[in-house]
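Box 3.1 A note on notation
Throughout this textbook, protein chains are presented in two layers. The first layer is the amino acid sequence; the second is a token string describing backbone geometry. Keep the layers aligned when reading.
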Amino acid sequence: MDAAEPSQKSNPRNLRHGISLMKRALKAGGTRALDRRTRVSKALDHWRDELIADLGGSEQVSTQQRAIINVAVKTKLLLDSVDAWLLQQPSLINLRKRAVHPVVLQRQQLADSLIRAMVQLGLERRAKVLPSLSEYLNGTKPKPPALPAPTPETSETDASEATP
């Protein structure tokens, strides 16, 4: 046997999805655990930037929203990794146990978590607040948009709830 060859062949059925290892790395180092030079990291950074742009730009995103965005980016990384592993499998069903692999259920939990984060951020795209011409010429910052006035339907229901 040649010294370059391994002494045993690896078992192709003994593949691991690596979700525990990735969770541990993200927990220990956060997003710093990702090397910013890799394609995966660049794709996640691009997705984060698009998400922030959809929320009206970095000036409009609050600290709380940034925290939710960071959680969503980590969840998306885990979800994409599990999806890639699942797509490499010959079957999603463990024939010996006659049940789906447990990682399928974990994948669904990750997907639900990502959906909840997206719902908290809001599903609508927000326009970036631009200064008016006079504000731009004066060098002042644009005023944030005013909150929409309550509609008569919502004010009537609020009034009926407040009345004993």
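The mean pLDDT is 76. The beta strands are 93-94, 99-100.
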